[in-house]
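Narrative of accomplishments. A recurring question from our advisory board has been how the design workflow behaves on a single, concrete structure rather than in aggregate. To address it, we present the structure tokens for one chain from the evaluation set, followed by the sequence designed for it. No filtering or post-editing was applied between the two.
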């Protein structure tokens, strides 16, 4: 099970964004941990990201920046990064997020000009179509006047590129919402008259923080997202990740801190809590370049330990060496995968709007 892994999950797999995300799931230590129910809750989270429209968006959005004339890593290279799992994948995504944030957020004690976010007149109101391996401006109308529209197409599950001949599946509207102290852009993904993805990314001049607020749905299950990230002048990247699925009364709250920008020496500290009618489970620990260990607690006690070494699959052992049932282990593996992919999902949500958020020189 993979949660929130954009390109890979979407091809083989935020509305009420003002909801207090960490308040959902009215459970606590008195609610027994139900591993089977927890796995079902995770499947509901996955389902929200499982539509074919989401698959198309997560793959095609990697090509958007090139339409603005902004160099971007190729979609195939990005897909390779996304396929990485465990600490290696987490660290690679964290480094990429840190580099992107460093380019978007102002340097310490310096401000940026929100006027720089204004979309160039040459592309404002344009609809971009895929042709010959990239997006080009077409003659269609309907794009927001202060934004752009990108058409979406069915994608090949292996190459993550559009199938040939092209099959149009919907569109993405990106609208500039920048104000006096913020650079902001809204992303809306529509297919067949249904809005499957709707979120706003804001870079705040006063707080030095980037936020993502919105939802993703498959038409039945909806995942509300509240993501916040900041990068200090000392190179400490902090990501706070909140998600809730109202249909399951489930909430996930995750804090990830990357200290240092050197892939060989950086450390990642994390803390995650998943709450719902099937109990509350928390994970906490640290990762380095060689691996890491997480302590799992539920019901007010230590329940298990998750150990990862190199690129190997995580090893899950019960407290005091006691064995876990397969249902217990499966649920914990699913929760662990959220931690390994949060940086990936955040970075990919920034990718389609990075052009709008770039600070003035």
């Amino acid at each position: 099970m993979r949660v929130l892994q954009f390109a890979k999950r979407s091809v083989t797999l935020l509305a009420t964004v003002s909801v207090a995300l960490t308040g959902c799931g009215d459970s606590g230590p008195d609610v027994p941990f139900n591993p089977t129910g927890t796995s079902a809750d995770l499947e509901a989270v996955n389902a929200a990201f499982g539509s074919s429209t989401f698959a198309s968006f997560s793959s095609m959005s990697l090509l958007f920046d090139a339409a603005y004339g902004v160099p971007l890593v190729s979609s195939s290279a990005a897909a390779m990064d996304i396929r990485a799992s465990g600490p290696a994948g987490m660290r690679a995504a964290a480094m990429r997020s840190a580099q992107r944030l460093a380019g978007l957020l102002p340097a310490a004690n310096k401000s940026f000009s929100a006027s720089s976010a204004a979309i160039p007149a040459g592309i404002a109101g344009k609809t971009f179509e895929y042709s010959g391996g990239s997006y080009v401006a077409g003659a269609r109308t309907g794009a927001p006047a202060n934004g752009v529209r990108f058409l979406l197409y069915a994608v090949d599950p292996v190459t993550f590129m559009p199938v040939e001949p092209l099959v149009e599946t919907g569109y993405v509207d990106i609208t500039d919402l920048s104000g006096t102290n913020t650079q902001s852009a809204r992303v809306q993904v529509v297919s067949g008259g249904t809005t499957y993805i709707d979120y706003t990314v804001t870079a705040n001049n006063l707080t030095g923080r980037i936020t993502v607020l919105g939802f993703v749905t498959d038409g039945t299950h909806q995942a509300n997202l509240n993501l916040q990230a900041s990068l200090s002048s000392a190179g400490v990247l902090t990501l706070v990740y909140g998600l809730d699925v109202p249909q399951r009364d489930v909430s996930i709250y995750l804090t990830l801190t990357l200290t240092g920008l050197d892939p060989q020496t950086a450390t990642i500290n994390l803390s995650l809590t998943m709450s719902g009618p099937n109990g509350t489970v928390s994970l906490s620990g640290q990762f380095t370049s060689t691996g890491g260990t997480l302590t799992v607690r539920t019901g007010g006690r230590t329940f298990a330990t998750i150990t990862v070494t190199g690129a190997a699959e995580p090893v899950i052992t019960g407290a005091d060496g006691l064995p876990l049932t397969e249902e217990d282990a499966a649920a914990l593996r699913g929760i662990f995968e959220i931690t390994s992919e949060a940086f990936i999902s955040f970075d990919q949500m920034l990718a389609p709007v990075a052009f709008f958020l770039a600070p003035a020189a």
